[in-house]
Amino acid sequence: MKKILIIEDDRSIAELERDYLEINDFKCELAARGTTGLEMALAENYDLIIIDIMLPGMDGFEVITELRKKKQTPVIFLSARSGDIDKIRGLGLGADDYMTKPFSPNELVARVKAHISRHEALTSNSGDIITAGSLTIDNDAHKITVDGKEISFTAKEYDLLLFLAQNPNRIFSKEALFDKIWGLDAIGDVSTVTVHIQRVREKINTKNENHIETVWGVGYRFS
């Protein structure tokens, strides 16, 4: 049974989320404060975390910032704040998705299932180690190093690099990468692929190594 952490200070909304998820065979735990939710997220291994932004103790942005320093658990923001700035900030901090209130409980369940399945598929090669020059991807440890130094990645940055590295010399369009890594086209557009490619390059490229090549007018490939 997959385990979900819901960090939400509105008890009625938290219980609504929990009820729909439990009907669909998920086990749910609730936290009403950002600080409490972060402690639980770091102490336990959840399959996915749903986070509100406006929380007592520490807000959702602070929670995911601290969480991403240690874990790449899939995260869905579920918030009444619907502005593009909040969505861009949340996704930029490493969230996998962003939904606004009021929301469809059935859509939430569908997104939870999709993100868990996608995360499991992208990280299923236990023990797989990919080495390219000074770059090493240890998928078993979920760790990326350059010249022996561990580099911090958001969940989507990691998934994007891993997918490209597992398919070397194949060219993928931005649309194909968006569909494979993000999957739910209701959030953002293919331009987010360009942003994430640039961030990954900044983290892994060295003076003599450029692992992700741009094939102009076509897409990207790992070499």
What topology does this entry show?
Layout lengths: L2 E5 L3 H13 L3 E5 L2 H10 L4 E4 L8 H8 L7 E5 L4 H9 L4 E4 L4 H18 L6 E4 L2 E4 L4 E4 L2 E3 L3 H12 L7 H9 L8 H14 L7 E4 L3 E4 L1
Can you put this structure into words, describing what you see?
This protein is of the alpha/beta class and 223 residues long. The protein has two domains: 3-122, 3-Layer(aba) Sandwich (Rossmann fold); 129-222, Arc Repressor Mutant, subunit A (Orthogonal Bundle), CATH 1.10.10.10. It has eight helices and eleven strands. The strands form three sheets. It has a five-stranded parallel beta sheet with strand order 2-1-3-4-5, with helices on both faces. Helix 7 crosses helix 8 (191-204).
CATH topology of the largest domain: Rossmann fold
Total number of strands: 11
What's the overall average pLDDT, rounded? 88
- Most strands sheet: 5 strands, parallel
Gyration radius from CA atoms, angstroms: 18 Å
The count of domains is 2
Query: What ranges have pLDDT less than 50 throughout 5 or more consecutive residues?
Result: none
Class based on secondary structure composition and strand pairing: alpha/beta
CATH architecture of the largest domain: 3-Layer(aba) Sandwich
Quaternary assembly? single chain
The helix content, as a percent range, equals: 40-55%
Question: CATH H level of the largest domain: which superfamily?
Answer: Response regulator
* CA distance, first residue to last residue: 38 Å
CATH class of the largest domain: Alpha Beta
The largest sheet has its strands arranged as: 2-1-3-4-5
| N-to-C order of helices and strands | EHEHEHEHEHEEEEHHHEE
Strand content: 15-25%
Count of DSSP helices? Answer: 8
